[in-house]
Amino acid sequence: MSRATTVLARSLGVLIVTAALAGCSPTPEPTPTPTGFASEEEAFAAAEATYRAYVAATNAQREDPAYSPAPESFLRGEALQDEIRASQYLADLGVSVVGDTTVVRVDQVTSADNDVTLDVCVDSSRTRILNEEGTDVTPDRETPTLIRVQLVLAGDMFITSSATAKTGSC
Question: Closest by alpha carbon to 159, among 87, 71, 84?
């Protein structure tokens, strides 16, 4: 065999072995996002799950005031202060809310570092406001309602930091 043929055969052999080894190498793990989740979709899913858990806890606590976890455990900052003010306002008026709120749709807005923003469409048409005598005093309202929800990463879970009603329909 000529020297050129030998070099060509060795080169082809190296290419074949390299290609075979590359095909057998493990798939690299996904690079975690700055939030520590494997992907942005995973971060959005975790944020959505947190907000849905908050709504479920709120509904459950309307039925049983001792229900745990308390809805407030899903809130921080502005969202927690708003919840406290709203609860105090209702108590001052001598009214209570009964019935369930439903999450109709959740849309992803943004994800950056340790926070996620969602647009959440909630339907509160099955809730009623009752006075101390049990009379329905529910005002006319638009439902469903679009809410912009900001969640921040706290440890390994998201916590709602703000929730603001938006104009427009869901």
Answer: 71
Beta bridge partners of 119: 107, 148
* Residue 47 tokens, joined: 């944020």
- Give the mean model confidence (pLDDT) for residues 57-65: 96
For residue 14, the one-letter residue type is V
Residues 6 or more apart in contact with residue 84 via CB below 8 angstroms: 72
- The rounded distance, in Å, linking the Cα atoms of 68 and 156 is 20
Q: What is the CA radius of gyration of the chain?
A: 27
Q: Give the confidence band of 3 by pLDDT, cuts at 50, 70, 90.
A: very low
CB-based contact 97:71 (threshold 8 Å): no
pTM over 0.85: no
Quick check: helix, strand or coil at residue 135?
Answer: coil
Q: Which residues contact 163 (CB under 8 A, 6 or more apart)?
A: 79, 82, 147, 148, 149, 150
